[in-house]
Amino acid sequence: MSAATVSSAPVKALPGEGRIGLRANLRHIGALVRRNALQIKQDPESMFDALLMPIVFSLLFVYVFGGAVAQGDRSAYVNYFIPGMMAMGGLNIAMSVGTGVNDDFNKGVMDRFRTMPIARSSVLIAKLIVETGRMLVSTVVLLVMGFIMGFDLKTGPVELLAAVALALFFGSSLTWIFMLLGLSLKTPQAVQGLGFLVIMPLQFGSSIFAPTATMPGWLQSFTKYNPLSQLADGARALTSGHGAVAHPVTMVVIWALAITVVTAPLAVAKFRNKT
Amino acid sequence: MTRYEHTTSGGNAVEVRGLVKHFGDTKAVDGVDLTVPEGTVLGVLGPNGAGKTTLVRCLSTLLVPDAGTAMVAGYDVVRQPRQLRRTIGLTGQYASVDEKLSGWENLYMIGRLLDLPRKDARARADAMLERFSLTDAAKRAARTYSGGMRRRLDLAASMIGQPAVLYLDEPTTGLDPRTRNEVWDEVKRMVSEGSTVLLTTQYMEEAEQLADDLTVIDQGKVIAEGRVNELKAKVGGRTLQIRPTDPEELHRMVGAIAQAGLDGVGGATADVEEGLVNVPIISDEQLTAVIGLLGERGFAISGIDTHLPSLDEVFLAITGQKTSIAETHDALEEVAA
């Protein structure tokens, strides 16, 4: 017992010693990406939301609300809605990551990863890569739906790819937020509850589904700064050739970088110190 | 693979001094000292909630201790966690494999995470599945495995990196006796190949089967330590078991021992089912006296044996308390009665 009282106070790990090199780090991330991809293969239902959500939302919004919103001009609404929906897809998948992470990270296999000579961030980065892949699949489904419903790409494939890349980049930053939430909250239900509370006003208080011109002033000032509006507007400008491209795109990039810079280290720290 | 180049003084694989870990007011680990010489098995024995798992989590860098020092394979758990992780393997109470992946994919992934080239990782995964008798189940998702298979896969995963020190945190909790024996056989094999093992258990029989040395902990403190046999001897008292050639003589033998009234020899009892007479004794002299008496009286004896007390009894003798398992058992019996 006396030994305990004379012993040293907790010390931090020595910096630099035994660091994981970049090549090793990439190899570890590769092995963990494979793990996440195999999980999807074992459990194909986990792709349902990525595949079905764009189909269901497209049908619902274009055929139920579209005519009314665009005053009868449904094809105009398709052109409005599809780029907006790109912003929505990332949000949706990011939220499912939050609940998945909570479940996954409470499993014994995470203890194994955390006792192995790998950078602990590689577990999260691998997850991020696979989820961004899911977002890409979801976006492709959305575009196929869009073209079937008469989406008219007025620019070219380069602009379309730029719009997709922008949406994925922003979506990946949202994934960090939800990984942080998933690691911080105790149950998947809590993540889902809090997620909805944040997501609902953000997705509907935006220009994703409808132009903001008829909204009251206070709401318009909210939508104006809502990054989802900026993403939707940016994607719209890129695919329609109308409206400013530089401003919304710059804003989205700034938002995505800011979110990542703040939440990624917090999420990694949470994972590192999880007991 | 990395074996430790610089061992601690005296070739100890694990040296823990005054380790403390508190969770709020709960002193989960409260000043633990322990030493595991290289190539030996230390059993950490204690009831549920004694702090065994917290101890293992501190030693495997999952928790940062509040005070004290711990060196594993020559590395400080707090200051050199990255190096330390190269030398340890952990099999937890809850299977630490990915349930959605097949057995082979689990092992291949771990090989890759341990920086094995693809070819080597594949070969190692195959070899490990073979060794742990899982080849037939190699392609199935781990969630379809039985409890014993899962635990074997877990051990295989821990062994891929050929760790210098292996932690087994209650490796057979929740397994049926047959599966438990399978796991024991595997652990014995690893030890025979030179692994150093720190094993936590709440089963006395498990410690007896696997451990060289024993540290008994309760409420975060070490309450006894020593060789398994030393600890049992410390508690004192043995049972002398005598097998008469003619089972019909059991009761006559018991009567003869009782009549003689040998000093310090307790009441003999007959175990009809096993065909044995059990005599509690304390010293070797008493053993000689009992056997001598039976010889004088002309009893034919076909076998004798002495048994040390069970570790349950050891725990009771050391702490003056029953283990939580025994307590639960007693409580259940009271309810039943």
Automatic annotation (TrEMBL), chain A:
<comment type="similarity">
    <text>Belongs to the ABC-2 integral membrane protein family.</text>
</comment>
<dbReference type="GO" id="GO:0043190">
    <property type="term" value="C:ATP-binding cassette (ABC) transporter complex"/>
</dbReference>
<keyword id="KW-0812">Transmembrane</keyword>
<dbReference type="InterPro" id="IPR013525">
    <property type="entry name" value="ABC2_TM"/>
</dbReference>
<feature type="transmembrane region" description="Helical">
    <location>
        <begin position="80"/>
        <end position="102"/>
    </location>
</feature>
<keyword id="KW-0813">Transport</keyword>
<keyword id="KW-1003">Cell membrane</keyword>
<feature type="transmembrane region" description="Helical">
    <location>
        <begin position="194"/>
        <end position="219"/>
    </location>
</feature>
<keyword id="KW-0472">Membrane</keyword>
<protein>
    <recommendedName>
        <fullName>Transport permease protein</fullName>
    </recommendedName>
</protein>
<feature type="transmembrane region" description="Helical">
    <location>
        <begin position="123"/>
        <end position="148"/>
    </location>
</feature>
<dbReference type="GO" id="GO:0140359">
    <property type="term" value="F:ABC-type transporter activity"/>
</dbReference>
<dbReference type="InterPro" id="IPR047817">
    <property type="entry name" value="ABC2_TM_bact-type"/>
</dbReference>
<feature type="domain" description="ABC transmembrane type-2">
    <location>
        <begin position="45"/>
        <end position="274"/>
    </location>
</feature>
<feature type="transmembrane region" description="Helical">
    <location>
        <begin position="160"/>
        <end position="182"/>
    </location>
</feature>
<dbReference type="InterPro" id="IPR000412">
    <property type="entry name" value="ABC_2_transport"/>
</dbReference>
<feature type="transmembrane region" description="Helical">
    <location>
        <begin position="50"/>
        <end position="68"/>
    </location>
</feature>
<dbReference type="Pfam" id="PF01061">
    <property type="entry name" value="ABC2_membrane"/>
</dbReference>
<dbReference type="GO" id="GO:0046677">
    <property type="term" value="P:response to antibiotic"/>
</dbReference>
<dbReference type="InterPro" id="IPR051784">
    <property type="entry name" value="Nod_factor_ABC_transporter"/>
</dbReference>
<keyword id="KW-1133">Transmembrane helix</keyword>
<feature type="transmembrane region" description="Helical">
    <location>
        <begin position="249"/>
        <end position="269"/>
    </location>
</feature>
TrEMBL record, chain B:
<keyword id="KW-0472">Membrane</keyword>
<keyword id="KW-0813">Transport</keyword>
<dbReference type="InterPro" id="IPR017871">
    <property type="entry name" value="ABC_transporter-like_CS"/>
</dbReference>
<keyword id="KW-0547">Nucleotide-binding</keyword>
<dbReference type="GO" id="GO:0046677">
    <property type="term" value="P:response to antibiotic"/>
</dbReference>
<dbReference type="Pfam" id="PF00005">
    <property type="entry name" value="ABC_tran"/>
</dbReference>
<feature type="domain" description="ABC transporter">
    <location>
        <begin position="14"/>
        <end position="244"/>
    </location>
</feature>
<keyword id="KW-1278">Translocase</keyword>
<dbReference type="InterPro" id="IPR050763">
    <property type="entry name" value="ABC_transporter_ATP-binding"/>
</dbReference>
<protein>
    <recommendedName>
        <fullName>ABC-type xenobiotic transporter</fullName>
        <ecNumber>7.6.2.2</ecNumber>
    </recommendedName>
</protein>
<dbReference type="GO" id="GO:0005524">
    <property type="term" value="F:ATP binding"/>
</dbReference>
<dbReference type="GO" id="GO:1900753">
    <property type="term" value="P:doxorubicin transport"/>
</dbReference>
<comment type="similarity">
    <text>Belongs to the ABC transporter superfamily. Drug exporter-1 (DrugE1) (TC 3.A.1.105) family.</text>
</comment>
<dbReference type="InterPro" id="IPR027417">
    <property type="entry name" value="P-loop_NTPase"/>
</dbReference>
<dbReference type="InterPro" id="IPR003439">
    <property type="entry name" value="ABC_transporter-like_ATP-bd"/>
</dbReference>
<dbReference type="GO" id="GO:0005886">
    <property type="term" value="C:plasma membrane"/>
</dbReference>
<dbReference type="GO" id="GO:0008559">
    <property type="term" value="F:ABC-type xenobiotic transporter activity"/>
</dbReference>
<dbReference type="GO" id="GO:0043215">
    <property type="term" value="P:daunorubicin transport"/>
</dbReference>
<keyword id="KW-0067">ATP-binding</keyword>
<keyword id="KW-0046">Antibiotic resistance</keyword>
<keyword id="KW-1003">Cell membrane</keyword>
<dbReference type="InterPro" id="IPR003593">
    <property type="entry name" value="AAA+_ATPase"/>
</dbReference>
